[in-house]
Amino acid sequence: MAGKTLFDKIWDTHLVREEPDGTTLLYIDRQLVHEVTSPQAFEGLKLAGRRPRRPAATLAVPDHNVPTTDRRLGIADAISAKQIQTLEDNCRDFSITLFGMNDIRQGVVHVIGPEQGFTLPGTTIVCGDSHTSTHGAFGALAFGIGTSEVEHVLATQCLVQKRPKTMEIRVDGVLSDRCSAKDIILAIIGKIGTAGGTGYVIEYTGSAIRALSMEGRMTLCNMSIEGGARAGMVAPDEKTVAYIKGRPLAPKGALFEQAVQAWEQLKTDSDAKYDATLVMRAEDIAPQVSWGTSPGMVLGVDQRVPDPATMTDDNTRKATERALEYMGLAANMPIADIKIDTVFIGSCTNSRIEDLRLAASLAKGKHVAKTVHAMVVPGSGLVKQQAEQEGLDTIFREAGFEWREAGCSMCLAMNADVLKPGERCASTSNRNFEGRQGAGGRTHLVSPAMAVAAAVEGHFIDIRHWS
Ligand SMILES: CC(C)[C@H](C(=O)O)[C@@H](O)C(=O)O
Ligand code: SF4
Fold this sequence. Notes:
Elements: H1 6-14, E1 15-18, E2 23-27, E3 30-33, H2 39-48, E4 58-60, H3 78-93, E5 97-98, H4 109-116, E6 124-127, E7 141-144, H5 147-156, E8 158-162, E9 165-172, H6 181-192, E10 200-205, H7 207-210, H8 214-222, E11 231-233, H9 238-244, H10 253-263, E12 276-281, E13 288-290, E14 298-300, H11 314-327, E15 342-345, H12 353-363, E16 373-376, H13 381-389, H14 392-398, E17 401-403, E18 424-427, E19 442-445, H15 448-457
Parallel strand pairs: 3-4, 3-6, 4-5, 6-7, 9-10, 9-12, 10-11, 15-16, 15-18, 16-17, 18-19
Antiparallel strand pairs: 1-2, 2-8, 13-14
Helix pairs in contact: 2-5, 6-8, 12-14, 12-15
The structure holds 3-isopropylmalic acid (IPM) and iron/sulfur cluster.
GO biological process, one term: L-leucine biosynthetic process
Catalytic activity: (2R,3S)-3-isopropylmalate = (2S)-2-isopropylmalate
Family: Belongs to the aconitase/IPM isomerase family. LeuC type 1 subfamily.
């Protein structure tokens, strides 16, 4: 029998039933819930008179709409306030654990799952949110689902799926100084495009991936969806085990030892075949900056903005022209000449403690440029607390950054943290669509290190040579 990939192993152990046409009923171990995509799901349960099949398998948190300023003042926006209240009511009515807005454990849903030890290797994890792929960093099969599916999983703990194909993306070698997981994933999406992963689950392999911390692997898997993939994953290893050990919801004692033994089996067999493979060298990856209006429109900071006049394909040329117009950029200008107004360090891509430590180490002793407004939004209340214990908040404040409460914030501007029309932002988030951070706002996706350097200089700069 042919060997199995990591994906095959998880899929096969969660398969409840498979039809001849490949339609599969998959068992879902865990579900995360937030305030935006859950109200109709709970409403559906109510109307049908059903209860969650396994309430303990679900964890809920408000994140998209929460204010990142003083929460004792409540929520000014009526729609946001109602969404958060509705989540609280539903969790109470359906006996689901909720980390409320003022709970120290509150944070972006994809930050708190791993932080609590809710995210475990070998499990199937879903959430009504596309960046659920983040949890694949632990060797879980984790993917985003729609609201009707949220209801289905609540009611049955199962989901109807078609088996996706598998893609290996192998990155060997050593990253350049100050380059990070964010640069790897942006470079991958720059290469495969935003549809390159369509129909696939990606497994990231190679020495550069193994060298990443768990935080780095989460950044990587987080953006798999921006490359079109259903999910991204990294096989668990000793770093995974060390990260999970002792977390509040992780197995304890003998159960933990048993779990570790099972997790050791979670790797792709040497004779297994992927449906597709892409190979890259870490040395070739420069610090990345997105210049356009999709995550695939991205280049190294040492490059120039593309010139539509050189493009032979009509669609590519038109898309480039439109993107340059929206972004207010001239063809051929050096990316390092792009001046920015705002810096956002946060989001489920880059707001974990390691991201903040790195950002603070570069911000220390420097100051945000006079023309720039910069903010740091920790991924969770616990990340914020940890950062404060380490004095990172002081470093950021002294350098001129605002230090905020945890939430999605300016990643998608559902709360008060919004770009003004025309404002240009260096952002550590994952999406740069038109209007993503506010109507008319212009987003450049970068790593935390690149964001700090841009905040200080007022424009992008190659951090490999920055002092
Ligand atoms: C609001 C939610 C449905 C959405 C998602 O699915 O990703 C959001 O988190 C985002 O990042 O755009
Ligand atoms: S931080 Fe951004 S990408 Fe992540 S869940 Fe929130 S809105 Fe979506």
